[in-house]
Amino acid sequence: MPENVPYIHLRATSPAVLPSLLMCDFGHLADEIARCEAAGAPGLHLDVMDGHFVPNLSYGLPLVETVRRLTRLPLETHLMIAQPEEYVGRYIDAGADVVTFHVEATADPRSVLAEVRMRGAKAGLAFNPPTPLAAVEPFLDECDLVLVMSVHPGFGGQEFEPVALDKLRQLRAREGMRAALEIDGGINEHTIAAAAEAGAHLFVVGSAIFHTKDYRATIGHLTDLAKTRVTT
Ligand code: DX5
Ligand code: ZN
Questions:
Q1: Which neighbouring-strand residues pair with 48?
Q2: Residue 10: band (very low, low, confident or very high) from pLDDT cuts 50, 70, 90
Q3: What residues contact 16, with CB distance under 8 A and at least 6 apart?
Q4: Fewest Cβ atoms nearer than 10 Å: which of 64, 69, 203, 225?
Q5: Ligand 1 neighbour 222 (Cβ under 6 A)
Q6: 194 CB under 6 A from ligand 1?
Q7: Residue 182 in contact with residue 202, Cβ under 8 Å?
Q8: Is the CB of residue 47 below 6 angstroms from any atom belonging to ligand 1?
């Protein structure tokens, strides 16, 4: 594998637009997933919230297991939960291919990253808009993915926070950076190009997909907008 090429499989399809199921119609979950597949989505992003680390509850292991049975697409679980060390193994057992947790949520991010990788999944580290890049820097060598949050986590449909762009630029410019760079929150046709230009490979999109009728057209359009700005 050449130097500087990360091995997370999703980055191979960069720019990759990943639907965030948080914004889907859960009354028709199987249909929604089938529509994402038919639209060419390269993977799905599943937002797990505990009502403690973030001020909202979403879903947990049973939903991830259900989605796993419904699709072969790569699944990323974005754990917005306290003490992720207690849960990462269970999410891998439930079918997550990528387990992303927050640097703010644990005292020992390095060992959680190592555990995820040791169990055969890809390890992602997320950080919130007010959290400085310095908080994740010591752990980059253990990351398959770095998730730069562009909203305060907890809810879909929020406005993009440009502070994420500087963080992406700095991460992208780092010597030997091999992790995939992902952005999550407020990504739509007005913000995706700037995020791509700043260095993101993976783009999590909730409302801007699920509030439209034609997912294929939306994902295609967003991917094209990201492509026009990708530098490498
Ligand atoms: C926010 C979640 C996001 C969110 C994305 O806490 O992590 O994945 O659902 O939704 P939009 O694209 O609507 O901001
Ligand atoms: Zn998310």
A1: 79
A2: low
A3: 10, 42, 43, 201, 202, 203, 223
A4: 69
A5: no
A6: no
A7: yes
A8: yes
The 10 Å Cβ neighbour count of residue 119 is 14
CA quadruple 116, 161, 12, 205: dihedral sign: positive
Write a three-state SS string for the chain. CCCCCCCCHHHHHCCEEEEEHHHCCHHHHHHHHHHHHHCCCCCEEEEEEECCCCCCECCCHHHHHHHHHHCCCCEEEEEECCCHHHCHHHHHHHCCCEEEEEHHHCCCHHHHHHHHHHCCCEEEEEECCCCCHHHCHHHHHHCCEEEEECCCCCCCCCCCCCHHHHHHHHHHHCCCCCCEEEEECCCCCCCHHHHHHHCCCEEEECHHHHCCCCHHHHHHHHHHHHHCCCCC
Q: Tell which one of 17, 20, 59, 182 to mutate to probe ligand 1, the residue whose CB is within 8 A of the most ligand atoms.
A: 20
Q: Where are the domains of the chain?
A: 7-227
Those residues whose beta carbon sits under 5 angstroms from the ion ligand 2 are: 47, 78, 184
pLDDT in tens, 39-67: 999 999 999 999 999 999 999 999 999 99
Does 56 sit in the ligand 1 pocket, CB within 6 Å?
no
Could you identify the atom of ligand 1 that is nearest to the CA of residue 186?
14
Q: How confident is the model at residue 229 (pLDDT cuts 50, 70, 90)?
A: low
**Mean per-residue pLDDT over the chain, rounded:** 94
